[in-house]
């Protein structure tokens, strides 16, 4: 006998219904969510007409729900992308596949045609420049006439998040896809094409464009390397992309002159991380978004999902990520003040904590200053974390954590805020559901165990024992100054617990002589015993 699906109650549902004056129908709406497999509030706003029909609303209530769904969504979830302007349509509006056959998704029951597990979008494909040139400053529209290249790109967003992704707003129905440098994927084109007159004005003391470097005291501190490269391009010099050969290129999905999303092809994944194969980044991009979203999107990871782009007979697989707004630049072009008060004024403590706690829970192996965006022109700035293909390694491969972007920030060396404590309590409360969702998205069990043990470490250290976030982060890092390196504090305890849980481990030396943990039979691990042993070790060894 099959058990009935677990009741689904999207975060923010009560508040959303209150905005619409329909809170008395909450039980019926929850029943509809459970039947349809609607996990996120965006899905309700997107399919408000179907929900209204199911609820058999009066004409006035139906108009209130359908007409106000996106506005209420924006009020409850300001970063959702919904309700920006009444005249804007969504990606779902231009989809060539507004419905589909009922499909079992995420073990949450049957989804009807109204909430389909794939979003297919037609877009014009614009041939970009050779990869040795910067695409933005030199971009020209394809020529007309006989020499014009008219091709269509089919973008299909797949997986659990297509409903959330399809809520992204567009200005018109004319969509295009073109190749751009990965480093500039989340930067508006106009920020990269300022002319020399503006630069000369800056040198005379004029207003400063957002991408130029400022020091921690707010004084002008010269041009960033990116600006210097831009000036060379404007002078007619063909410059090689700084990222080519490292992280490859990506594709921007655009509506008119505005970017909507960034597609990262699998063949552009050029990272090299232990136990992570190139090509496995797409599912991890989606997984990290889910981890953040299940805790209220406090770290600000843009909605990410797996996707494919087909141009002619060529098919590219990868992930698609919503374009981030109000980008001022990368954190590498700025510096966090060392003084705590000034640091708080630059980036609020709760924002810094949310980022660090996310990176620690997903064991980020690539959080450097070049993949952390600084958002908002006014202070305090907020943060935009991107590029999460190097997260969630197998539980036996925890030697390469990289927290360089934030490990020295003063906001993380002080008593954690109440917001940080509540975030971790939410993470623990929703861990079981989050893990199930990650498995349904395609993440392997060994990586899900990593999320569980890292969440346990951070929760016990910060919430139960009152340690600072910086203290706990340091326990996850190896000392890079030692040659050969030694196991991190966390690795030592993972290795000991694995032996007690039926998965004996040994150490082997890498080519440079560093120790590497090896498990001959990972599947022999008794997961519950392993995690219980780790929790006991964390509580004992973290006491000061």
UniProtKB/TrEMBL annotation:
Origin superkingdom: Eukaryota
* Kinase is among the record's keywords: yes
Q: Keywords in UniProt for this one?
A: ATP-binding, Kinase, Nucleotide-binding, Transferase
Query: Boundaries of each PI3K/PI4K catalytic domain copy?
Result: 332-397
| Record InterPro entries | P4KG1-8, PI3/4_kinase_cat_dom
Family per UniProt?
Answer: Belongs to the PI3/PI4-kinase family. Type II PI4K subfamily.
What's the name of the protein?
A: Phosphatidylinositol 4-kinase gamma 5 (AtPI4Kgamma5) (PI-4Kgamma5) (PI4K gamma 5)
Q: What is the species listed in this Swiss-Prot or TrEMBL entry?
A: Durusdinium trenchii
């Amino acid at each position: 006998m099959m058990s009935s699906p677990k009741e689904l109650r999207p975060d923010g549902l009560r508040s959303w219904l209150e905005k619409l004056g329909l809170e008395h129908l909450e039980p019926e709406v929850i029943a509809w969510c459970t039947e349809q497999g609607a996990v996120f509030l965006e899905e309700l706003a997107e399919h408000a007409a179907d929900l209204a029909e199911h609820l058999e609303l009066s004409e006035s209530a139906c108009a209130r729900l359908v007409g106000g769904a996106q506005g209420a969504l924006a009020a409850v979830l300001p970063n959702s992308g919904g309700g920006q302007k009444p005249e804007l349509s969504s990606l779902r509006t231009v989809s060539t596949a507004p419905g589909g056959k009922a499909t079992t998704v995420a073990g949450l029951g049957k989804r009807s045609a109204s909430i389909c597990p794939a979003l297919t979008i037609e877009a014009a494909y614009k041939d970009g420049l050779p990869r040795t040139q910067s695409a933005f400053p030199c971009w020209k529209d394809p020529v007309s006439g006989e020499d014009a290249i008219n091709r269509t790109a089919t973008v299909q967003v797949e997986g659990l998040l297509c409903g959330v992704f399809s809520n992204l707003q567009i200005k018109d129905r004319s969509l295009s896809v073109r190749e751009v440098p990965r480093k500039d994927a989340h930067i508006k084109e106009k920020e990269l094409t300022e002319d020399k007159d503006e630069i000369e004005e800056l040198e005379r003391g004029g207003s400063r464009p957002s991408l130029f470097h400022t020091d921690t005291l707010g004084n002008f501190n010269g041009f960033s390397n990116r600006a210097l490269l831009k000036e060379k391009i404007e002078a007619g010099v063909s410059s090689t992309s700084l990222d080519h050969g490292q992280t490859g290129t990506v594709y921007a999905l655009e509506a008119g002159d505005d970017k909507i999303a960034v597609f990262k092809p699998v063949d552009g994944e050029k990272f090299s991380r232990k136990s992570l194969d190139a090509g496995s980044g797409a599912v991890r991009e989606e997984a990290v978004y889910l981890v953040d979203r299940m805790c209220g999107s406090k770290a600000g990871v843009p909605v990410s999902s797996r996707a494919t782009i087909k141009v002619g007979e060529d098919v590219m697989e990868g992930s698609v990520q919503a374009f981030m707004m109000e980008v001022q630049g990368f954190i590498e072009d700025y510096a966090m003040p060392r003084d705590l008060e000034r640091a708080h004024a630059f980036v609020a403590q709760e924002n810094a904590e949310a980022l660090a706690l996310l990176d620690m829970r997903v064991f980020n192996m690539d959080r450097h200053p070049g993949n952390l965006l600084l958002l908002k022109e006014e202070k305090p700035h907020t943060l935009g974390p991107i590029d999460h293909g190097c997260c969630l390694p197998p539980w036996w491969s925890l030697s390469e954590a990289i927290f360089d972007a934030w490990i020295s920030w003063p906001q993380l060396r002080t008593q954690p805020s109440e917001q940080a404590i509540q975030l971790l309590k939410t993470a623990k409360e929703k861990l079981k559901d989050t893990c199930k969702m990650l498995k349904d998205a395609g993440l392997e069990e060994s990586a899900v165990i990593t999320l569980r043990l890292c969440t346990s470490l951070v929760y016990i250290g910060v919430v139960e024992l009152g340690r600072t976030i910086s203290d706990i982060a340091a326990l996850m890092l190896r000392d890079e100054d030692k040659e050969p390196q030694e196991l991190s504090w966390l690795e030592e305890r993972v290795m000991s617990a694995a032996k007690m849980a039926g998965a004996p481990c040994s150490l082997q030396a890498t080519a440079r002589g560093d120790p590497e943990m090896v498990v001959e039979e990972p599947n022999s691990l008794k997961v519950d015993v392993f995690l219980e042993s780790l929790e006991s070790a964390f509580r004992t060894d973290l006491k000061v």
